[in-house]
Design a protein that fits this description.
The chain has five helices and nine strands; from the N terminus they run H-E-E-E-E-H-H-H-E-H-E-E-E-E. It is α+β, with helices and mostly antiparallel strands. It has a single domain, classed as paralog of FGE (formylglycine-generating enzyme) (Alpha-Beta Complex). The strands form three sheets. It has a four-stranded mixed β-sheet with strand order 7-6-5-8. The longest helix is centred in the N-terminal third of the chain and has 23 residues. It is globular. The N and C termini lie far apart (about 80 Å). About 5% of the residues have low confidence.
């Protein structure tokens, strides 16, 4: 018969072996992001508008982009929470009652959106990518075409105090030409670009904060208060949002509309979707 000391050594050895295994069973692996993106093929498209909208949407010009992919839907609360649970994203504090995991996440800053997209193996789309995905190569005014918005096509026109974004994909008749949902209405979507109101004058130049701040100063100096629309002229470097929101008026849902906010701000009408580069398949010979 073994001695008490020997039995204690055996028990201790078993604990040392089984305790890490039990801890591993309790420690759930971080969730993997669910990625569902539509492909936007390479080629030219018409960006901006000379016909209507604000002066910062002019002049209309042609851009040519390589192929890329963009999220089929705005990032939902449920998807964003998985990034929080993985320890990569900061929690987004919603309005009371905004708990539907199928609705787009809101109250996320530009920085929070960028962090999520990196976790989801992507990035924020550029402003040009967003517009091409929303309007296609034929220069349409809204994602579905040139007809005016309706409640069947988009979520818009609600009161700020009582309204809310709807679950993503609730308006398939308003889909954009490559299959993306809700690119008009529901929530404004952060894009990667610095907001430069003069950017379309030199579309080959990448906007940066120095250029943007110089443009803001020029607009203030010449008192062009309406140049950037209802948002007014910024005094600090802003980032661009696109697409309109659940509280916006219908004509503001046009694919060329540009708005801007401080990148560190949290807003009940703003969310985002992600993008990544895409390599088009080589045609069979």
């Amino acid at each position: 018969m073994s001695s008490p000391a020997a039995r204690w050594c055996l028990v201790a050895a078993m604990v040392c072996v089984t305790a890490p295994l039990a801890a591993q069973r309790r420690r759930r692996p971080p969730p993997a992001p669910v990625i569902d993106r539509v492909t936007v093929p390479a080629g030219p498209f018409v960006m901006g508008s000379d016909a209507d909208g604000e002066p910062d949407e002019r002049p209309q010009h042609t851009r040519t982009l390589p192929a890329f992919r963009i999220d089929r839907t705005e990032v939902t609360r449920g998807a964003y929470f998985e990034c929080v649970r993985a320890g990569r994203c900061r929690d987004a504090v919603m309005r009371p009652g905004w708990t539907d995991p199928r609705a787009p996440v809101t109250h996320v800053s530009w920085f929070m959106a960028r962090t999520y997209c990196a976790w989801a193996r992507g990035r924020l789309p550029t402003e040009a990518e967003w517009e091409k995905a929303a309007r296609g190569p034929d220069g349409r005014r809204y994602p579905w075409g040139d007809d005016a918005p309706t409640r069947e096509r988009a979520s818009y026109g609600q009161l700020m105090d009582t309204g809310a974004p709807e679950p993503v994909g609730a308006h398939p008749t308003g889909d954009a030409p490559y299959g993306a949902h809700d690119m008009a209405g529901n929530v404004w979507e952060w894009v990667a670009d610095v907001y430069d109101p003069f950017a379309y004058r030199e579309p080959a130049r990448t906007p940066n904060c120095d250029l943007a701040l110089a443009a803001y100063r020029e607009l203030n100096r010449t008192r062009q208060w309406a140049f950037t629309g209802a948002m007014g002229i910024p005094t600090t470097c802003h980032r661009v949002l696109r697409g309109g929101a659940w509280n916006y008026w219908p004509t503001g849902l046009r694919t060329t509309n540009r708005v801007h906010h401080e990148p560190g701000g949290f807003y009940p009408v703003s969310g985002f979707r992600c993008a990544d580069d895409a390599v088009e398949p080589t045609p069979a010979r």
